[in-house]
Amino acid sequence: MANILIFNQVTKKLIEYKKSVNTPDYSWRSDVLVNPNIPNVPFKYLEVRNRVVVELSQVEKDAVDQAETDAQAQAEINRIDNLDISLKELIGVLEKKGIISKTEIITELKK
User: Fold this and answer.
1) How many domains is the chain built from?
2) Are residues 56 and 64 in contact, defined by beta-carbon separation less than 8 angstroms?
3) Could you give the angle at the alpha carbon of 108 between the alpha carbons of 107 and 111, nearest 5°?
4) Residue 48 sits in which domain range?
5) Is the pTM of this model over 0.85?
């Protein structure tokens, strides 16, 4: 029994780590490392280079973090774009938050 690491051969990113598996079940796979040494950092900061698990440089880690932040921001934009909210509901939220009153909205719309 051994531990294995499955990785994406194109992106070199780690996919899955399995403990105490029957290695002959995986011996034919080129996307598997048996008993790899894995640095003690989150998997998102690791990749396989020359069949060795390596930690990304700080510049690469920053790029991973930025990509995550960008994806989260885009997901939030998509969520907002998909909202089905009426103008009346929006005015209610703005009023409740003290951002603007109905009177101010009416005044602005009359301009």
Assistant:
1) 2
2) yes
3) 90
4) 2-56
5) no
| Closest of 24, 41, 33 to residue 6, by C-alpha | 33
66 and 105 both lie in a single domain? yes
| Burial group, residue 44, by CB count within 10 angstroms (0-12, 13-18, 19+) | middle
Question: Residues 6 or more apart from 11 whose CB is under 8 A from it?
Answer: 47
Per-residue pLDDT tens over the stretch 34-68: 999 999 999 999 999 999 999 999 999 999 999 99
| 64 in the same domain as 49 | no
Residue with tokens 């938050």: 97
Together in a domain, 52 and 22:
yes
Beta strands in the chain (DSSP E): 2-7, 14-21, 32-34, 46-49, 52-55
